[in-house]
Amino acid sequence: MIITLKVTLLYGLNAKHPWEGSLELEEDTTLDKLHDIIRRVVNFDDDHLYEFFIALTPTSRDQSCFDDENEKVYSTTIGSLFPLKNKRKLFYLFDYGDSWTFQIAKTRKKPFAAVDGVHYPRLLEEKGQKPEQYPGWDDDWEEE
Description:
By secondary structure, the protein is mainly beta. The protein has helices at about 30-40, 70-75, 80; strands spanning about 1-10, 20-25, 50-55, 65, 90-95, 100-105, 120-130. It has a 7-stranded antiparallel sheet with strand order 4-3-5-6-1-2-7. It has one domain: MM3350-like (Structural Genomics Hypothetical 15.5 Kd Protein In mrcA-pckA Intergenic Region, Chain A, Roll), CATH 3.10.290.
């Protein structure tokens, strides 16, 4: 089944503008794969550690963490997490130094069967301006 998620940028070192995107993906998508999907949607390099966590707020001390160290990102599917209990929310933290933090919510749209000819995952829509991971970085720069 296909589910729809809303991904909202909360903050990050260079987060200057609001951004959110709606994604359709298979509910058996692992958190590791979701990391890759979000990273590609916002055009971030895959050069930093990341984690997902469930908490009341992004700064709550009481968190259920899914990361590379405990390997839960490889076995936990997005469909297994929802609905979240006790007003908890799902967060995605990318790059512990720059603290790119996104909130991930399942929309009210009911899960549906994949549509023939449609490639999933897919970005349905986005609002705002995508964050820039390395503003001012010149990709053409070479050492002299």
